[in-house]
What does this fold into?
Amino acid sequence: MPGVRLEKVSKRFGEVRTLRDIDLEIADGSFTVLVGPSGCGKTTTLRLVAGLETVSSGRILIGERDVTALEPRERNVAMVFQNYALYPHMTVYDNIAFGLRAKRMDEAEIRRRILDVAAMLGLGDLLARRPGELSGGQQQRVAIGRAIVREPNLFLFDEPLSNLDAKLRIGMRTELLKLHRELGTTTIYVTHDQEEAMTMGDRIVVMEAGEIRQTGTPREIYFRPADLMVARFVGSPPMNIFEGRLEGGAFEGAGLRLPLPGIGSFAGRVLLGVRPEDIHLAGTLEPERASAPFSARVEVIELLGARAIVTFALEGAEIKAVVEERQLDTLREDTDASLVLDHHRLHLFDAESGERV
Ligand code: ATP
It folds into this structure.
């Protein structure tokens, strides 16, 4: 299966510059997720790869082939949209067959492919129904089936699960990943949901305002975010950010003075980022990982089950920590608690540029 390469791709709509000099390499057979806030240019990127829009400048290659000037049908890609886009008056069978018939494929071959795909997607009993007689999840499966039968070089998914309810969405994520393992087809998947990106992508591309902020594995994106935007976008509850200064190997800010061993000689205004799961009750973290303890007032405890989100007030700042349920009996709302940060999991960003220090 070929990979995809975008070289200095820009897209303007009139005066609006939607994508700026995008360079992106998508490996053969990978499952790459484009994620970012609304309007950042994800869908436009996908439509450029599909050939549904033309680039303003730059090149797009699928495998070794420069497809920049090719029509969509010459690119051999299949796209699945959020709104399944099925033909309402046709049966499931005819919907899936449609693209193959347009290519004048032999009916026996069409039938063979449809039965294969129907078995793969659990659509076998639904082939005679019309889309109006299917649930949302079943309709999305038909749309996916229609993409698979074409045996494309590349799958493009544009928020395919957004119209499904939460439980079905989680089930379909797993199904899509299994399908990807089975078929091995290079896939580009667009979502604005950071959790979907983290769980599905073997590579994640975080975009903002028409630019790529970071490309990496889910672990790289989560544990080494390249800048403040990525750090804030990924993770729920979001990363805590403290404003302050680094001086003499210690962070000072939000009423804290925390010596940070191994921080080197950097000095100046910084933002200290700490994920909620990296704030611990003093005494519950291995001593060699724990920062100096500090005190904070317990404001709200929200129990999720095995864990709780605890909101603490710190001089002028609010912080959220994820605390194990069994540690909660030491905490009371409106009293002080002693906390430590995990030294190995701190993030420092330059206060001016937002870049990781
Ligand atoms: P969302 O998650 O909301 O779909 P997105 O990241 O997919 O967002 P795009 O749909 O790629 O974003 O749009 C990027 C920007 O380009 C937006 O500001 C949008 O308004 C603009 N845009 C997209 N298509 C057109 C168009 N045909 N004409 C003018 N502007 C457009």
Q: What stands out?
A: The chain has eight helices and 20 strands. Residues 12 and 58 are 12 Å apart (CA to CA).
